[in-house]
Amino acid sequence: MQLMKSNSRLVKLTIRAATLLLVVLVCPSSQPNSTIAVEGMFPINEIASLDLGSTGLKLSADQVFSTEKTCLVDGICRVNTCTGSFVSADGLIITNHHCAYRAIQTASTAERDYLADGFQARSRADEIPSRGYTVRITESFRDVSQEVLSAVTSNMTFLDRTQAIEKRQKELEKFAESENPGLRAEVAEMFTGKSYMLFLYTYLKDVRLVFAPPASIGNFGGDVDNWEWPRHTGDFSFMRAYVSPDGASAEYSPNNVPYKPKRFLQVEASGVGENDFVMLLGYPGRTARHKTSHFLQYERDQRLPFIVDLYQWEIGVMQAAGRDNRSLALKHTNRIQSLANVEKRSRGQLKGLNRAQLVETRLQQESALQDYINNDPERVRRHGRLLPDIGRVYHELSTQAPLELTQANLVITCRSLALAFTIYDAARERVKPDIEREVAYMDRNYELTVQQLLLAHQDLDLPTDRIMLQGMLERLVKLNGNQPAPPSKTQSDSILDFVRGFQDKQALSDFVVAYVAGTRIGEKESLQKYLQLSPQELDQSPDTAIRLVAKCYPRLMELRAIDKRREGALSQLYGELLSAKQAFLADNFVPDANSTLRLTHGTVRGFSPEDAVYKSPITTLKGVVEKTTGEAPFIMPRRVLDLFQQRAFGRFAHPVLGQVPVALLYDTDTTGGNSGSPILNNEGKLVGVNFDRAFEATINDFAWNQNYSRSIGVDIRYVLWITGNVFGATQLLEEMEVPSR
Predict the structure, then answer these.
(1) 500 falls in which pLDDT band (50, 70, 90)?
(2) Is residue 583 packed enough to be buried (19+ CB in 10 Å), middle (13-18) or exposed (0-12)?
């Protein structure tokens, strides 16, 4: 028994050594700062167990979060998939420019171009409704793990397991909403396959655009600077949440009134300095730090290269289409920005996976974990086959990846097909009992689904779509016959059956021309008409987009079932693997993020991404001017350049640098979804808005390290200077209780 304890300690030291090896591989040099950063996006209910006082935070745990009294968390909200902060008693929200981008784009025309010129509402009546935007505020939560997992039985298939858990989650959400009228419920998986929490949210549906700087400020540097440091981007915008006069959540109405949050964040106009404590609250997306080496290999060898190649092509098609047509460029701009962000992140992740040898490091960690399991017969019985079994799922996924990824993206890349698919899928799903439908088509979600469909329709350009469809079909023709048979033979592959009809490029080109000529889905009236049709009526439709979706639908449904089967297998296997890892790592176990409210903390801190290079953590207006070339993406409004020359910085100059600070770099642990998260000082006051990570930190989703994991935010002093001094929106500074001078 003593020998087994010694061996267990040895393998724990081995896995920690493997983690330290990752540090050396990624960042061989260090930076001039001895503060040790902390990994973790901590669930909000765990704050009380953290020793935040020792980090420099001057607030108690219950001042940050409490179920009994008003707290800092009450000032945090979720804006669609981003984070936002209430900064006034009248529902004013600060978030990122790129989070408000869809609202700015939708309101813009070639004649009234808010992306190019910026937007400012001079009065509340001028604030623009942002269709498709929602604001959520976390109200409460409770553990429902036992209730969810009670739906699972030992004799279920993996597909049945996924479907049973989904159904139970939907049942719990519907019941919670019936018991709490006006609130929104969501069951979140906290630990894969193991634990689930039911969250209740205030859910606001009338969101309006208040202020947005021009894209030349809000997206300064464009894709060139995206995911890079140093950064000089003023990535911020203001929105406002509204409710009905009785305080209830309501759709847009001119009679609605500003929402009154329980708490709003105080703005600290003096900002922060290097080595100062900072803390972020927000809704980070999902991380994969407990996924196995098989997952990392799939990402490295299959999915990420596919995404980079496909998205680069899509971006090129849309950029070419809008090059000499501003109206068309506006149609494509939101989609281009979104794709470009993911494409560059994916390139960074590929580079990080290879440079840091993450697969090899994860293999070492798994070897140590397997040794730990093998040292105890009971652990062998329970966990001995976990890693090989997980490997088999990813082997199947990798083998089928080129074909499955291309087929799934056929009805995503081609916008008219995406619209037609949603219409056809909704018709099929909505004849089912509500609880058995896919989540997007349940009664509680369908209105928002239709609203998002109509917004996507505004971006449709059929000539561009023709090129997209042609390109995707050419990819499928190339893949045809070169792929192994799908693992499930319950149905023929209807998509491959379809593309076999194209013997040459001319036949394919003729089909695409006929497709564009034969669809009415570009007409809003036709789109709305199709939404009212039954499945049988859609099957008889002469519309070529509907007909193509109907032809491909059996395979798309098979792909949906395959995904759920794999999800069921991995959910069960990862749940068991996490149990083994928790026992093995003990206090060193950090949970993955899952889009629920989290806290992370650290310091304003530079870093050394490569040998003999140190990057300091604060950029300034001087750097903006030095980067300005007058050509996109480095254009800056004349007013900014003039005020720089006059040194008209007001009270927003950095006391040491003598310039208006623009962006901050800090070592908090963040990922997607933290866009818009408030950067808070040790008193819980707002000193900036998070919007990005350094290129070296794009692999934060897979692994975190104190030397390279750096997040980027816009300094509150730049926000206030641009808003008040440059564009004269002093009414917003007054609303935030910030003197403009």
Answers:
(1) confident
(2) middle
Give the span between the Cα atoms of 635 and 216, in whole angstroms: 6
Tell me how far apart the alpha carbons of residues 446 and 214 are, in angstroms, rounded to a whole number.
Answer: 34
If we measure between CA atoms, which residue out of 584, 15, 570 comes closest to residue 288? Answer: 570
pLDDT grade, residue 502 (50/70/90)? confident
| CA neighbor of 383 nearest in space, from 572, 565, 658 | 572
Q: What is residue 319's predicted lDDT score, i.e. its pLDDT?
A: 97
Q: What is the pLDDT of residues 120-169, one digit of tens each?
A: 999 999 999 999 999 999 999 999 999 999 999 999 999 999 999 999 99
In this structure, what token pair is assigned to residue 32? Answer: 């001039």
For Cα atoms 131, 136, 142, give the angle at the middle one, nearest 5 degrees. 150
Tell me what pLDDT residue 366 has. Answer: 96
Asked if pLDDT for residue 488 goes beyond 60, the answer is no
pTM, 2 dp: 0.90
Nearest CA among 196, 200, 207 for reference residue 181: 200
Q: Residue 149: count other Cβ atoms within 10 Å of its Cβ.
A: 17
> Shortest CA distance to 188 belongs to which of 172, 205, 175, 203?
172
Can you give the pLDDT at residue 704?
A: 85
Give buried/exposed letters for 409-425 (b at 16+ CB in 10 A, else e). bbbebbbbbbbbbbbbb
Other CB atoms within a 10 A radius of the CB of residue 337 amount to: 19
- What single-letter DSSP state applies at residue 300? I
Least confident stretch, 494-503, 555-564, 584-593? 584-593
How is residue 524 written in tokens? Answer: 């809003």
pLDDT beyond 70 at 391? yes
Q: What letter would DSSP give residue 376?
A: S
In the chain, the amino acid numbered 578 is L
Contact between 148 and 571 under an 8 Å Cβ cutoff? The reply is: no
Q: How far apart are CA 474 and CA 317, in angstroms?
A: 15
Both structure tokens of 16: 């920690």
Tell me how many helices (H) and strands (E) the chain has: 26, 21
Question: What is the arithmetic mean of pLDDT over 618-637?
Answer: 97
Residue 664, pLDDT score: 98
What are the backbone dihedrals phi and psi of residue 664, each rounded to the nearest 5 degrees, phi first? -120, 150
pLDDT of residue 590: 73
In this predicted structure, the answer to whether residue 589 has a pLDDT above a threshold of 80 is: no
Q: Using the structure block, give the residue that is written with the tokens 């926000």.
A: 719
What b/e sequence results for 217-246 when a residue is b if at least 16 CB atoms lie within 10 Å of its CB, and e otherwise? bbbbbbbebbbbbbbbbbbbbbbbbbbeee
Tell me the domains of the chain and their CATH numbers. Answer: 32-41+77-134+205-285+590-741 (2.40.10.120), 293-347+396-580 (no CATH)
pLDDT value at 28 more than 50 = no
634 touches 627 (CB < 8 A): yes
As a whole number of angstroms, the distance between CA 203 and CA 183 comes to: 6
Q: Which two tokens stand for residue 652?
A: 């927003």
Q: Do the strands 661-666 and 711-715 form a parallel or antiparallel pair, or are they unpaired?
A: antiparallel
Distances in whole angstroms, Cα of residue 315 to Cα of each of 103, 112, 329, 413: 21, 24, 11, 11
Minimum mean pLDDT range among 231-245, 258-272, 556-570, 579-593: 579-593
Task: Find out whether 454 and 526 touch, Cβ atoms under 8 Å.
Answer: no
Q: Which two tokens stand for residue 563?
A: 């995904």
Q: What residue spans of 324-376 are helical by DSSP H? A: 326-355, 358-374
- How far apart are the C-alpha atoms of 114 and 611, rounded to whole Å? 43
Phi and psi angles of residue 635, each rounded to the nearest 5 degrees, phi first: -110, 140
CB-based contact 476:410 (threshold 8 Å): yes
β-pair partners for 598: 43, 282
Please tell me the number of Cα atoms within 13 Å of 361 on its side-chain side: 24
- Contact yes or no for 663/69 (Cβ under 8 A): no
Distance separating alpha carbons of residues 596 and 281, to the nearest angstrom:
10
Tell me the HSE value of 340 on the side-chain side, using a 13 A CA sphere.
20
